Amino acid sequence: MDVSLASWLVIALAVAAANLPFLTEKVFGLVPLKQREPGVERTKHAFVRVFELLVLYFVVGACAYLLESRIGNVFTQVKEFYMITVPLFVTLAFPGFVWRYLRKHRR
């Protein structure tokens, strides 16, 4: 796999992972929430979505690390790397946030 393809793969994975917590009511898109009452759908709290976003940030980072190690030397990551990538990941989550909280849904 060449560098360009690996870069685009990480970017596509980051966009998908950043929006996943906002697009589904299941935890990590897999685990449904327990229902208190039959027929009443529970919604995830905001802190669950933030926790998912944090976990998915590290999952994407691990995938990027694996791809980088397959290409060649892995660069050391210092605090500036995380100071840039965390806000970037949150910015990539903006379309999902808008869809979940700012768009009016028909009921």
TrEMBL record:
Q: What is this protein called?
A: DUF2818 family protein
What are the protein's UniProt keywords? Membrane, Transmembrane, Transmembrane helix
Q: Which InterPro entries match?
A: UCP019883
Domain of life, per UniProt, equals Bacteria
Organism of origin is Massilia agrisoli
Q: Name one Pfam family in it.
A: DUF2818
Q: Where do transmembrane segments lie in this chain?
A: 6-25, 46-67, 82-102
